[in-house]
From TrEMBL:
It comes from the Eukaryota. Gene3D superfamilies: Endonuclease/exonuclease/phosphatase. This is Uncharacterized protein. It comes from Holothuria leucospilota (Black long sea cucumber). InterPro entries: Endo/exonu/phosph_ase_sf.
Length: 219
């Protein structure tokens, strides 16, 4: 895929991403309709179009975005166009889930200019899969010891240096049919393991859980 020479505009937002953002207006997080946690509305939620006027580089040395692809082959151009059109954000890392890749798919088919792609494909059946697009020149190492530690979710972890901090970044996909209690138990074990390293950890992904009760009249 060659470099795209067109100018980005608000109409260029890939439709695959339109359902990924929403305004949160209530004050609770509900998981599996049985457990409710109080939360503070301290996070900024923005519409995809707002990204064109939002600068991340001024505030952070490391900027990360997560995209649920539902077939990276099918939506490769949409993902590539998004990363290209948001050059002012200059995302360092793009975590992707539901890549739907397998080992017969060549890396050249999913290449994005100026990014290195690493992946963890689902092996036993179709679907699933996770990966990272990492900007060229950004130093990282793959944390193989944290990969595939649970049968209840798919994951891939990397470790990066951000200024003085060492950061562990993980992308996780939980298939919707998998047991939620088992997922919670294994995720808790994973977080406990990471916590022993006394490093900043950032987890992204598709958990297929009802984390927020949302209400929007414009969707």
């Amino acid at each position: 895929m060659g470099t795209n020479n067109r100018n980005a505009s608000q109409t260029d937002v890939p439709s695959v991403l339109n359902s990924s953002y929403a305004n949160v207006i209530d004050n609770s997080i509900t998981i599996d309709d049985t457990v409710t946690y109080n939360k503070q509305d301290s996070c900024l939620y923005i519409d995809p179009n707002d990204l064109y006027s939002t600068s991340l580089k001024d505030a952070f040395d490391l900027s990360i975005v997560h995209l649920n692809c539902r077939s990276l082959i099918k939506n490769h151009d949409a993902v590539s166009d998004l990363l290209y059109s948001l050059t002012h954000c200059s995302f360092t890392i793009a975590a992707v889930t539901e890549t739907w890749l397998h080992d017969s798919i060549s890396a050249s088919l999913i290449d994005i200019p100026n990014y290195t792609f690493i992946r963890n494909d689902r092996l036993d059946k179709r679907g699933g899969g996770v990966g990272f697009y990492i900007k060229h020149g950004f130093c990282y190492s793959v944390r193989s010891d944290l990969r595939n530690i649970s049968p209840h979710f798919e994951s891939l972890f990397i470790e990066v240096k951000n200024c003085k901090d060492t950061v562990i970044i993980g992308t996780i996909y939980r298939p919707p049919a998998n047991s939620i209690p088992s997922f919670n138990e294994d995720l808790s074990k994973l977080l406990t393991l990471i916590n022993t390293e006394n490093k900043l950890a950032i987890l992204l992904g598709t958990l297929t859980l009802t984390l927020f009760s949302m209400a929007r009249t414009d969707m």
